Amino acid sequence: MTKKFLKDSLLWGFVLWFIGYVLGFVFFALVPATVIGWYVMPFGIIITLFVAFKFIKSTSWPYCLKVGVIWTILAMILDYIFIVQLLNSTSYYKLDVYVYYGLTLVLPVVVGWYKRIGATNDRS
Known about the structure:
Order of helices and strands: HHHH
């Protein structure tokens, strides 16, 4: 594993998870607990797209898929430790969480594909 891959996958995966975690606490004070995820998600999507476009330089489908897989596994592990276990959340896993995990996996792949299409069009 290269230093770049570790940064793209582990560092950015943790940073994105942590931003969502903090936003969850912010929204906890503002909206009912049952809908926090739906309020955090638009911000998470925008921030994830920003990171994927700005900092993940690869357009390789396998690379972007590996980044997405690691981001998703990291999110699942950290959610379990710091939300389910630490906060003793018995009802954390609902539709919003599954959508969030799916987007965490798919967004870096879609951005990599989009960049690759753009790079191909630039060469034409």
